[in-house]
Q: What sequence folds into this?
């Protein structure tokens, strides 16, 4: 083989090696870009999940506050009811006492008070 043929074969081999390197480089670049997109997408999903979790925590805290207020209101109503029951018991005892006093003085007792 002469020098021109060897030179041409050398150019072809170098061209093929360059093309192979370019294809490998392009694949590596595409893979890196794909992984970057995947990581960016993953990061976005994580951000969305964290926002949703924070929103749910705020809603839960608001519901707990409402529940605490409802328990406080219920306790207040129970205390009011207990006070009314004590007042009813006291008034009933006072009426019975007055009936005994009236009977002791020779008068007829009053008619019983119907419960409400």
A:
């Amino acid at each position: 083989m002469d020098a021109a043929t060897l030179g041409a074969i050398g150019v072809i081999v170098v061209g093929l090696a360059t093309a192979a390197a370019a294809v490998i480089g392009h694949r590596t670049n595409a893979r890196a870009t794909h992984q970057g997109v995947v990581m960016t997408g993953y990061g976005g999903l994580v951000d969305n999940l964290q926002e949703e979790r924070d929103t749910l925590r705020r809603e839960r805290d608001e519901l707990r506050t409402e529940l605490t207020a409802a328990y406080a209101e219920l306790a207040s109503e129970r205390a009011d009811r207990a006070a009314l029951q004590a007042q009813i018991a006291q008034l009933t005892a006072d009426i019975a006492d007055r009936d005994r006093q009236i009977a002791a003085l020779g008068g007829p007792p009053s008619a019983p008070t119907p419960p409400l």
About this structure: Residues 23 and 81 are 85 Å apart (CA to CA). The chain has one helix and no strands.
